[in-house]
Amino acid sequence: MELPKYHETFMPILEILNTAEVISSRELARKVRDNYYSELPKELLDKKTSSGANVLIDRILWGKSYLKMGKFVSYPKRGLVQIADKGKQTLISGKLLLSDLQNDPDFINHRSSVQSKKENQLEIETIDVDNASPQDLIDNGFSTIETEVKTELLDKLKEIDPYFFEKVILILLKKMGYGDFIETSKSGDGGIDGIINEYKLGLEKIYTQAKRYTENKVREKDIRNFIGAMSGDTTKGVFITTSTFDDAAIKKAREAHHSIILIDGSKLVDLMHQYNVGIQVKITYEVKELDNDFFEGE
After folding, report:
1. Which of 260, 220, 214, 221 is nearest to 241 (CA)?
2. How confident is the model over 27-39, as a mean pLDDT?
3. Residue 35 φ then ψ, to 5°
4. For the CA atoms of 195, 197, 202, 205, what is the dihedral angle to 10 degrees?
């Protein structure tokens, strides 16, 4: 007997979710374990990863993550998961193999987004497992997980309430070391979403504009309106979007008398990942090496 592979947990996960409207990820993993794998030997059920996590629970959670990539399940709130209509249809068909997932259009689109982000960051690398060092494999694994998280983070930002998105941006800038922020009124704000202090003492102000777009690019008109809304007490602004800026918008920001910083979706999730906004540390690994000084010292 052996533990199931992560993709072998797909159907059990969907079946458990089909009996509950919304459930926490940990409760889901526990129920899948207890309902489908409880008769495995205790030494397998208690098997740990090198970081101390339970192997079976970890594989179930990875199975859930891959189902999310294919839109078979969704995350309505932090830490919660529920079955999607697509997942319910899969239960009717009676099977979901790894090959089915790999050929699924939604999963392919997700993987394409991840691949595109890797290429944009010049991080893409083909790993020759037989010739790679253990450190190479670890680095590549961490890079893949990081890119997956950033892709999911950007998808989530495109789904949230626009007003909450504006607040997320101000929270990020605060974490980056800027001073206190002020949220502007949501009506008649003249194109300004927030005001932050460049320094903690509030000596200079920076205006922010946040556009939560799914596909549309920020245009030159948007930058022009932003500049026009900036009052005389500042010449600095940050324009953030979940999408990208068209060439005319970039040109307008570059040639403006004001100092306008543009942050697109890719750069935004890089910063959120760096400053731990909207994400959390799952596992910390400790890699050790031989201390030669210990043996060579007096």
Report:
1. 214
2. 95
3. -85, -25
4. -60
174 pLDDT higher than 50? yes
> Closest by alpha carbon to 249, among 280, 209, 218, 283?
218
CA 67 – CA 60 distance, rounded (Å):
11
Long-range Cβ contacts of 282-286 (<8 Å, 24+ apart): 283/51, 283/53, 284/51, 285/50, 285/51, 286/51
Instruction: Kindly state the percentage of the chain with pLDDT values over 90.
Output: 41
pLDDT at 122: 44
CA dihedral (266, 272, 278, 280) in degrees, to 10, reads 120
Placement of tokens 């600095």 in the chain: 236
What's residue 124's pLDDT? 46
C-alpha 270/C-alpha 146 separation (Å) is 10
DSSP string, 103-145: T-HHHHHHHHHHHHHHHHTT------TTT--HHHHHHHHHHHH
User: Does the pLDDT value for residue 206 go beyond 80?
Assistant: yes
Q: State mean pLDDT over 14-41.
A: 93
C-alpha distance from residue 226 to each of 12, 29, 62, 237, 238 (Å): 51, 47, 42, 8, 10
Question: How many other CB atoms sit within 10 Å of the CB of residue 105?
Answer: 9
Alpha helices in the chain, H assignment, sequence order: 10-17, 25-36, 42-45, 55-69, 85-93, 98-102, 105-120, 134-159, 162-175, 220-229, 247-255, 265-274, 292-296
User: What residues have CB less than 8 Å from 99, skipping those under 6 apart?
Assistant: none
Q: How confident is the model at residue 227 (pLDDT cuts 50, 70, 90)?
A: confident
